[in-house]
Amino acid sequence: MMLTRPRRPDYDTKRAFLVRAAARAARARPTVVETHSAVVVMAGPHAWKMKKPVRLPFADLTTATARAHLCREELRLNRELAGPDVYLGLTAITQADDGTLALDGEGLVVEALVLMRRLDARRMLAARLDAGPAPTLDEVEALADRLVAFYRRAVRPPAAAAHYLDRWSHTGRVNSAHLAAMQPWLGPAFSPAFVRHAPGLVTRCRAEIVARAGAGLIVEGHGDLRPEHICLENPPVVFDRLEFDPDLRLADPFEECAYLGIECARFGAGWIGMALMERLASAGMAPPSRTLMCAYGVNRLLTRARLAIDHLRDTAPRAPARWPREARRYLLLARSIAQGAGVSGW
């Protein structure tokens, strides 16, 4: 008689199993964090990250093969920045012939996972900014030194300037289309002309960007450098580097650090961005012009506004009241930066 394999578990079944397995392994109740593309289950000294079977604008995660590939990429890329003591390796949910699920057990691999060392939530930069104690200058300079070392050894792709400019242009078109479609939730914070013309700020700086790429100042950076992705251990840990697309990681170090500074300024700690950029300059990296810094800041903030309001496109968005507020705040901040730099014309 031919035996048939049990049906593969769906996402909800695997998620529920992972929560139970983490609780058993740590003998403690897990903490579960959800993002658009993944669920992270933290228990005891470990964290397990499982990617969701979703289709995103920049990646299709609907197949187990694609998710496994991105787990491998996440491990490779983040070990370059956070190190192997944080990104411990790959593991998997397996299914035995009788349908039983296990962590790294016998049988068929049904879902790849990234295994990490659990970081102290109280030491996250976002938590320190929000609830204290406030980050110290020594901690921020240690973070800057970690980033300087990373940027010095980062990949400098061929044709970096062309890819970087194309990325900004494409992102600008997506921002404009999505924000316009979501205008009813954005109110007067949304200016169609401002959003439409913002990518041109980068285009006007084409010659400077080409020169910066030629000087090795357009690199494969982090891609999403925010306070949520920094833990102020000693030495500091920078994690959750984007794995989806190398073009999304292309960055000018000053652009990444300035955006991190903008996010810190929300908590009254705008000095952090200035300290980071001063450290980059003192390490021999030439800062961009004021015009280019304005272009970077405006377009980064418009992207954050679009990503925030795009949560409402989900079938069942988490905390739906939150996203219009965040999007409006980013839109107003983008316009404030442009006005502060004397940019007009719309």
Automatic annotation (TrEMBL):
Domain of life: Bacteria
Protein name: Aminoglycoside phosphotransferase family enzyme
